[in-house]
């Protein structure tokens, strides 16, 4: 009888945990603020900041040559199955597909390089979108992700786009609003040096990818004086009927994407990340990108709600970014939020 009671309790706990994980980050934050041992006036201030934070949208534009893997990249990173799809530009010119995921909006541009006439139409559409403003009269597009093909020897279309379109449109903010991704690392060098068992490049291919990234970085630096470090990766999603491989270095790409998103908007990404273990397991091991991402989200919660107060936070025995420890009391409600964020995102790694 006692054993049956234990089983029932465990079942209830699992059900409640599943419900908690289904909450959006904003709902979880609101609940923790309301349950925190804080004066009512302080709760009101925090809720006001949260409401303002929740109203903000992240707008990401994807650009690149035909076949570079823009669509596979967003499919691997985000929950595209629940996205609302629309057309953001006159379809008679160059249709930019708009994907809406809660507070995250992705603008997927048509592939470049098919024809001069079509490229001119697409370029015009990109320029138009980059010059749009939001309700606060700030640039609508927060970040432009340029997807290149690691297997291609001719990246001229991408260089032309960066040098002649993106940098002139973005001006002084170009280095903070452009993320360069070199996709399809698995098929570079004709795929001969990709270790399918470990799902990573062998030493020969790894050296090739590093040199390619350095070459792209140097060429853009020479043309624009901008120092932008490309991230080589493999989105893993293939065309229908093609062989499927697991993503590689996607965690690194997500981490650097997160760093370039305005801090007050970063929480919008939490609910939209695709929670599949295989998507976040394989990377170059140059850094613990998972831990770095967790720290960034934790600091974002603190800074966006508490105006960068110099508190330390410890979650699961690890200090997150800010020196010191938070031991309950005034900030006690936030600990539950941080645990929630890391449990939800961390489940993909367990």
Can you give a write-up of this model?
The chain is of the alpha/beta class and 350 residues long. Helices cover 44% and strands 13% of the residues. The chain is built from eleven helices and eleven strands. It has a seven-stranded mixed sheet with strand order 2-3-4-1-5-6-9, with helices on both faces. β3 and β4 (104-108) form a beta hairpin. α2 runs antiparallel to α11 (332-346). Mean pLDDT is 79; it is low at 1-20, 308-338 and 340-344.
**What order do the strands of the largest sheet run in, or round the barrel if closed?**
2-3-4-1-5-6-9
Give the termini separation: 33 Å
Tally of alpha and pi helices: 11
Largest sheet: 7 strands, mixed
Q: What is the average of the pLDDT values?
A: 79
Counted beta strands: 11
Estimated helix fraction: 40-55%
In terms of per-residue confidence, which ranges show pLDDT below 50 for 5 or more consecutive residues? Answer: 1-20, 308-338, 340-344
Overall shape: it is: globular
Helix/strand layout:
Elements: H1 2-22, H2 25-35, H3 40-54, E1 58-64, H4 70-77, E2 84-87, E3 97-101, E4 104-108, H5 116-130, E5 143-149, H6 156-170, H7 174-177, E6 178-183, E7 194-195, E8 200-201, H8 203-224, E9 231-232, H9 250-260, H10 289-306, E10 314-315, E11 318-319, H11 332-346
Helix pairs in contact: 2-3, 2-11, 5-6, 6-8, 9-10, 10-11
């Amino acid at each position: 009888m006692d054993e049956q009671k234990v089983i029932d309790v465990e079942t209830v706990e699992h059900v409640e945990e599943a419900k908690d994980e289904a909450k959006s980050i904003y709902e979880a934050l609101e609940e923790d603020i309301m349950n925190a041992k804080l004066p009512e006036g302080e709760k009101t201030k925090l809720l006001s900041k949260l409401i303002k934070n929740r109203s903000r949208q992240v707008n990401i534009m994807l650009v690149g040559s035909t076949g570079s893997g823009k669509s596979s990249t967003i499919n691997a990173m985000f929950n595209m199955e629940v996205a609302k799809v629309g057309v953001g530009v006159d379809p008679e010119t160059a249709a930019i597909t708009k994907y809406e995921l809660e507070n995250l909006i992705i603008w997927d541009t048509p592939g470049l390089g098919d024809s001069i006439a079509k490229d001119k139409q697409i370029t015009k559409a990109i320029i138009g979108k980059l010059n749009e403003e939001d309700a606060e009269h700030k640039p609508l597009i927060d970040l432009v992700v340029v997807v290149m093909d690691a297997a291609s020897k001719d990246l001229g279309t991408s260089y032309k786009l960066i040098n002649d379109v993106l940098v002139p449109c973005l001006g002084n903010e170009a280095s903070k609003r452009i993320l360069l991704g070199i996709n399809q690392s698995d098929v570079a060098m004709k795929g001969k040096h990709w270790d399918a068992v470990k799902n990573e490049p062998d030493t020969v291919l790894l050296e090739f990818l590093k040199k390619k990234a350095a070459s792209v970085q140097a060429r853009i630096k020479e043309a624009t004086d901008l120092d932008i470090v490309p991230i080589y990766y493999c989105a893993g999603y293939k065309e229908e009927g093609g062989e499927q491989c697991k993503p590689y270095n996607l965690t690194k790409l997500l981490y650097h994407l997160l760093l370039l998103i305005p801090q007050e908007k970063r929480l919008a990404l939490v609910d939209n990340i695709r929670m599949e273990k295989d998507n976040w397991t394989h990377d170059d091991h140059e850094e613990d990108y998972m831990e770095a991402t967790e720290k960034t989200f934790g600091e974002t919660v603190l800074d966006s709600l508490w105006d960068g107060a110099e508190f330390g936070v410890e979650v699961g025995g690890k200090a997150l970014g800010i020196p010191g420890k938070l031991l309950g009391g005034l900030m006690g409600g936030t600990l539950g939020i941080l645990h929630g964020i890391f449990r939800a995102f961390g489940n993909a790694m367990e």
